[in-house]
Amino acid sequence: MDVIVIGGGIAGIATAYQLHAAGHRVCVVERHATVAQGATYGQGGALLPSPLDVWFGPTFMASSRSKQSGMVVKTGFDSAARDFIKQLATLRNSETFAAQYAHLQPLVATSRRVLAEIESRLELDFEQRRGMLHVFRQPRELEEAQPAIDLLKGCGVPYKLLTPEECIAVEPSVPDHSDFAGGVLLPDERTANCPLFTKQLKQVLEDDGVQFRMHRAVASLRLDGARAAVELADPNDAKRRSADVELITADAIVVAAGTGTPGLIGGIESASSLFALRVHTLTAPVAYEERAPHLTVVDSIKRITMTRINQRLRVGGAGVFQSASKADKPLDATLSRRALDLLGQGTHDWIPGAARVSAARAWEGLRLVTADGLPIVGATRHPRLFVNAAHGPAGWGLACGSAKVIADLVSGVTPDISASALAALSVERF
Ligand SMILES: Cc1cc2nc3c(=O)[nH]c(=O)nc-3n(C[C@H](O)[C@H](O)[C@H](O)COP(=O)(O)OP(=O)(O)OC[C@H]3O[C@@H](n4cnc5c(N)ncnc54)[C@H](O)[C@@H]3O)c2cc1C
């Protein structure tokens, strides 16, 4: 079949890879001049989400104060944004959390398998690093995280509960003078460079004959004929003068357009079910080699991830919840400062002296998140339209497993995840 994939982030490129592997002819459309320019560019590095990493659950935003939660909430009177946060708060209940994570778990397992297959087939070096240490400040926080820790066991994720002394022994960059409650070591969980992987995969696909239409924006989808079609326009031409519009057709379309997805697929009725969350990274040179971590250190409650990538440290987190109308406007300088201060403080608290924060490059990006914490993966009501998007904070590895699910569905093959998990991930839930 001929398949058009919209979006050149990790979700789009991974989908193109699986569709091509399944024998389809694929064309990827991306509005930027190159791939990995959206949320994929800024990722913090964590490859697959464990129950401790997902952006919902018992400890997520348990406090409304940004210094405690690691999030800046500025929803004002926007009722959709407030409802969104209320819905996420219901997932703090341990049973609701476990039930929701159970829908994600099959996708995590598929993603792990798919990534292993790609790695063994292509032998790519994309700065993979093994070992993550989640650290907790207060004994109460460790207690609150217990339902997530219990799920690690249930999901077969190897882990070790560590005292503060044991944390310092496995990761000497954690300061021995600080007073904290302890940590959880995930020895097999990995971090890696998502934009680098995305670019490498794109190169493999291009060499294999997959088409790339870069610097072309999809203005709309046409799904009424025997074949599906997309209208391509110059991304800088907001007025879409007709001379600039080009129509390309295919048997199926996969929308993997990150925050551009809802506008293209339409039909999402509830304004509070999807949200473009602004997240930040700081990338700083290593200051002192002897203080740089060799494990990835995660401030578990504040969801701040500190990853070493060769001679750099990538610190990611500091989400800013604002009303939807502010998502496509530049962030107010005071809020931006507050968010970056959270990252700077996390670095100072857990790996002091490791990074030259004064020389750090700051980046912020929007990622699409859902109020139930699950991505949107699968078929839609229209038989030619499929979606791989809204992975929120966990799109790096998850998008790769989702890509396999999509390729199976497009090919008419039953995916390797249960029908109930597929239903939970479907866009129809909104
Ligand atoms: C600061 C930050 C830290 C993060 N940390 C992690 C982490 O540690 N681990 C993890 O797993 N995930 C992390 N994430 C999330 C992860 O990066 C995202 O889930 C993932 O990159 C989403 O990929 P995507 O392909 O869906 O979206 P994107 O990368 O945003 O790609 C979508 C693409 O579609 C294109 N597009 C949109 N509309 C159109 C259109 N109309 N026509 C043509 N092209 C279009 C865009 O230009 C873009 O290139 C982080 C995200 C951020 C922002």
From TrEMBL:
UniProt KW keywords: Oxidoreductase
Which Gene3D superfamilies is this protein grouped with? Answer: D-Amino Acid Oxidase, subunit A, domain 2 (3.30.9.10), FAD/NAD(P)-binding domain (3.50.50.60)
Cellular compartments per GO CC: cytoplasm; plasma membrane
Does the UniProt entry include the keyword Phosphoprotein?
Answer: no
Provide the GO biological process annotations.
D-alanine catabolic process
Recorded GO molecular functions are: D-amino-acid dehydrogenase activity
Q: A Pfam family name for this chain?
A: DAO
- Enumerate the spans annotated as FAD dependent oxidoreductase domain: 2-409
- Entry's family note: Belongs to the DadA oxidoreductase family.
* Protein name per UniProt: D-amino-acid dehydrogenase
